[in-house]
């Protein structure tokens, strides 16, 4: 919808209708730094309207069979797939990611999220035990929780929003989703497909706006018993505080400081390109990205030389360039935050081998004010440095040597996060042994980001609470009851 001055004007989607808002936020094109979209600056009033719509829709939707709900999710997947190119273009422009990544990862995964949960909802089983000596049978039943608040971040906008919406509505809940105010466009575009897919009014409601204003109104609402959140740890702490008085169900998927552990027998021909990708994909703005690389000392020099060469080949370009490997970071503020870590590293005496402050960005004049940064590799950095401890969430990775297996496990675990890790070795006993000892919810060995949606996804320590996946999301979005029958 075109608004003032031809800018894109989004509207909330509540009760099956697009509704204007009394005030709006500017949303920027990360590749130019220009305002191109207005996002509703929703508040309590909009949350109340969404709760009323979700409440009214719950009896009808929750009483539909899993088969009926599954068919709706499949139709929505079909419609998203038919709009793949339009959604990919929008996601790339809104988030700054490359069009190629949006086309091949973000939107296909959003489609798959609906297909995956449309299928998995048909195959869950419950539990049953017998106490014949007491003439008793015990069994479990599950039912949808009610109105689910879904709060998603700006790094994988439609990918992560649908990773929450799909299981929530498949299980029979109604939802109020709040995407990041920085990347609201594809969520708004999806709303235009809901009616055609057969999603009844009020089943999916989307309110746009900032975390403190509309996000807090949503998470503290007494009629919203469940919150699924992906984002930063500080925000998760705030949401936990606000939800505590109501004892709400919480799923918190947070950040990471993910290590790659590379042993001397690693296949470097595979390890290096994969570790470049795991460090810089999506501008390093994925919670699963590698930001600490531990390399066994005997291959450290060779690895470093080849890794820096490969990082310099990683093309930074305008998001619409199909040959670009990396686009623009999400915001000016985030770019400055990421750059500040490079400055701190320099002040600590670390070496910056390529990227920020070493190599030159080559951008068209129109993109000079965009939020671009080159892939940056830091070495000679201490384990206690903030660059080795804190989530930077940008195209920055640290490379350090190690000697023994015991040493590297201790160092890799010596951070507050515990989300993901990669282990590179041809020794199968070692990869199993090391993977088990790493404090991570996810460990990829000799690969990265091969996703099995059936199995638990999530982190430990400060990387979050709970897991997401076929069974895990189903259990999160339902309440279980144990029934005993004495016969
Ligand atoms: N783990 C992850 O996947 C992500 C981690 N991050 C980390 O978080 C840092 C900040 O990024 P942000 O986008 O600001 O993350 P954030 O955690 O502030 O925002 C994530 C979502 O939470 C909402 N939100 C923010 N404050 C809220 C509140 N008080 N109540 C309810 N909802 C609230 C936001 O509007 C957004 O939809 C990044 O620099 C990065 O380090 C950011 C995005 C994704
Ligand atoms: N939660 C994030 C990524 C999830 C990826 C997946 O489920 O495949 C993130 O980057 O915040």
Automatic annotation (TrEMBL):
Keywords: NAD, Oxidoreductase. Residues 24-483 form the Aldehyde dehydrogenase domain. The active site is at residue 253. The lineage of its organism: Eukaryota, Metazoa, Chordata, Craniata, Vertebrata. GO terms for biological process: retinoic acid metabolic process. InterPro entries: Ald_DH/histidinol_DH, Ald_DH_C, Ald_DH_CS_CYS, Ald_DH_CS_GLU, Ald_DH_N, Aldehyde_DH_dom. This is 2-aminomuconic semialdehyde dehydrogenase isoform X2. The gene is ALDH8A1. PANTHER family: 2-AMINOMUCONIC SEMIALDEHYDE DEHYDROGENASE. Belongs to the aldehyde dehydrogenase family. One of its GO terms (molecular function) is aminomuconate-semialdehyde dehydrogenase activity. It comes from Bos indicus. GO terms for cellular component: cytoplasm. Pfam families: Aldedh. CDD domains: ALDH_F8_HMSADH. PROSITE patterns: ALDEHYDE_DEHYDR_CYS, ALDEHYDE_DEHYDR_GLU.
């Amino acid at each position: 919808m075109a608004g003032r001055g031809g800018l894109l004007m989004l509207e909330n989607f509540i009760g099956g209708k697009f509704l204007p808002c009394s005030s709006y936020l500017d949303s920027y094109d990360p590749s130019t730094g220009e305002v191109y979209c207005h996002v509703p600056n929703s508040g309590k009033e909009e949350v109340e309207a969404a709760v009323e719509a979700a409440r009214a829709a719950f009896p009808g939707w929750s009483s539909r069979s899993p088969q009926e709900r599954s068919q709706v999710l499949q139709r929505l997947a079909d419609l998203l797939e038919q709009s793949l190119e339009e959604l990919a273009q929008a996601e790339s422009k809104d988030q700054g990611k490359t069009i190629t990544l949006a086309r091949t990862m973000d939107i296909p995964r959003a489609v798959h999220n609906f297909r995956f949960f449309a299928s998995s909802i048909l195959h869950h089983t419950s539990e049953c035990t017998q106490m014949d000596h007491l003439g008793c049978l015990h069994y479990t039943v599950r039912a949808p929780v009610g109105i689910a608040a879904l709060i998603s971040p700006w790094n994988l906008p439609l990918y992560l929003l649908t990773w929450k919406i799909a299981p929530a509505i498949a299980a029979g809940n109604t939802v109020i989703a709040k995407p990041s105010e920085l990347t609201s466009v594809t969520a708004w575009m999806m709303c235009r497909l809901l009616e055609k897919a057969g999603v009844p009014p009020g089943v999916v409601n989307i309110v746009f706006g900032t975390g403190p204003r509309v996000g807090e109104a949503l998470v503290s609402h007494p009629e919203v018993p469940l919150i699924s959140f992906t984002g930063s740890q500080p925000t998760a702490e705030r949401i936990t505080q606000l939800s505590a008085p109501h004892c709400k169900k919480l799923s918190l998927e947070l950040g990471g400081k993910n290590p790659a552990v590379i042993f001397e027998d690693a296949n470097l021909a595979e390890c290096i390109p994969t570790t470049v990708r795991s460090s810089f994909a999506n501008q390093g703005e994925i919670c699963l990205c590698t930001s600490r690389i531990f390399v066994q000392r005997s291959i450290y020099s060779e690895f470093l030389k080849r890794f820096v060469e490969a990082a310099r080949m990683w093309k930074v370009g305008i998001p619409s360039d199909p040959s670009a490997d990396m686009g623009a970071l999400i915001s000016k503020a985030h770019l400055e935050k990421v750059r500040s870590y490079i400055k701190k590293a320099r002040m600590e005496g670390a070496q910056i081998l390529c990227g920020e402050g070493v190599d030159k960005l080559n951008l068209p004049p129109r993109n000079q004010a965009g939020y671009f940064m080159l892939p940056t590799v830091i070495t000679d950095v201490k384990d206690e440095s903030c660059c080795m401890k804190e989530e930077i969430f940008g195209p920055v990775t640290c490379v350090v040597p190690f000697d023994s297996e015991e040493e590297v496990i201790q160092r890799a675990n010596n951070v507050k996060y515990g989300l993901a890790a990669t282990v590179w070795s041809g020794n199968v006993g070692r990869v199993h042994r090391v993977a088990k000892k790493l404090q991570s919810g996810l460990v990829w060995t000799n690969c990265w980001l091969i996703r099995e949606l059936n199995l638990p996804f999530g982190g430990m320590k400060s990387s979050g609470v709970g897991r997401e996946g076929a069974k895990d999301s189903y259990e999160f979005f339902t309440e279980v009851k144990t029934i005993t029958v004495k016969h």
